[in-house]
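Check out one such.
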Amino acid sequence: MLQRMEHCYSLSAEFKRRAVGYIERCRLPDGGYFFARIPPSCSADTYFAVKSLALLGAKPSDPGGVVAFFRHQLREGALYSISSIFHAVEVLADLGEMTEDLISHARQHIIVCQNSLGGFGATDNIYVEVSSELEETYQAVSVLRRVGAEFDLEPVYRFLDSFLNKDGGYGRDGHSTLASTFYATAVYRLLEVEVPGAAATKAYLRHRESLGKMQFIEDLYWLAGGLANLGEVPVEVNPTIDFVLSCHRTGGGFARAPIIGIPTLEYTFYALSVLKEVAAL
């Protein structure tokens, strides 16, 4: 468990072991991962699994299987969306298994996804499960940076700026959200440029933090991540850790909320990321 000592926490080896165990129990015979443990594996869950293991200082028990899973997806034409390409590139780059065919595929497919507003992906009729209209732009920019592709940055900057609101946050139609603010600041961090009006964006995030405990783990992830993108950390570290622990389940994974919900690889990644940002990992 996480043991509280004075004003900090110490993450035990047993806690890490159980988290790794939960993740590995979600591994499937095709080499990838899926929280429901029903074939086939999911590219997103495989990404969350490998990234979570890295946060815990571990590697997949069968890295070759992970590589084979994504290479099979590439051969079968399953890597066609920005998100699926992002998942494959991130994981294979981390495992040192990037190949020229994946690099070429990523360059060709991501560039053509740039929209008329300068960002990437859809701008209207976005699926309700998509957390932010800026998520695909972040993923696309990340891929293009990973594969060393050149692209015009000015349209991307203009696109992000169109979502910047008076309160310093980012979001559509003047409504700032933690998710959009996280993705906007993440893009600027990837491009290694200062966030325009960074002081106002910090103020927006600090205001959201001051409102109290988050309802869902992803909200805390976007808040802590947004602050990290600006070189900041949550002020109330112990309450932050308390909320993450309240989402912990006996099997080693994390759920979306303290009281209800089953553990998933996605929420486990969010939880472990927050713990990392507050130096509990």
Residues 255 and 262 are 5 Å apart (CA to CA). Residues 1-8 have pLDDT under 50 and may be disordered. Residues 13-25 form the longest helix (13 residues). The longest strand covers residues 2-5.
